[in-house]
């Protein structure tokens, strides 16, 4: 049976399909937000259709975890955008 795991140092600790680097959020974004068929997403990531559905179930069963992951991603994107727009600091 497919398990969703979180491992520090793998995919930033985000929930993922065990034995892969395929995150729950990756699956959700493609299937639900991107409107791709689950079978196509499974094929794209090289996982089973059951693993795709397990990831989707995890997304819906763990809303707090998903909110925390989305918050971390948004913070990282904001930080990177600020750094990209800021002029380099002179070396001292």
From TrEMBL:
Biased composition (Basic and acidic residues): 72-82
Top-level taxonomic group: Archaea
Matches recorded under Pfam families: DUF433 (PF04255)
Chain residue ranges for the region called Disordered: 72-92
Gene3D superfamilies noted in UniProt: Winged helix-like DNA-binding domain superfamily/Winged helix DNA-binding domain
Source organism of the structure: Halorutilus salinus
Signal sequence bounds: none
InterPro entries, sorted: DUF433, Homeodomain-like_sf, WH-like_DNA-bd_sf
Protein name in the entry: DUF433 domain-containing protein
């Amino acid at each position: 049976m497919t398990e969703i795991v979180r491992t520090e140092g793998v995919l930033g600790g985000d929930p993922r399909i065990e034995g892969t680097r395929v995150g729950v959020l990756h699956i959700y974004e493609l299937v639900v937000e991107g409107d791709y068929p689950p079978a196509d997403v499974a094929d794209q990531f090289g996982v089973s259709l059951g693993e795709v559905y397990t990831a989707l179930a995890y997304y819906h069963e763990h809303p707090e975890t998903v909110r925390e992951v989305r918050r971390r991603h948004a913070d990282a994107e904001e930080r990177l955008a600020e750094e990209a727009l800021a002029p380099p600091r002179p070396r001292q």
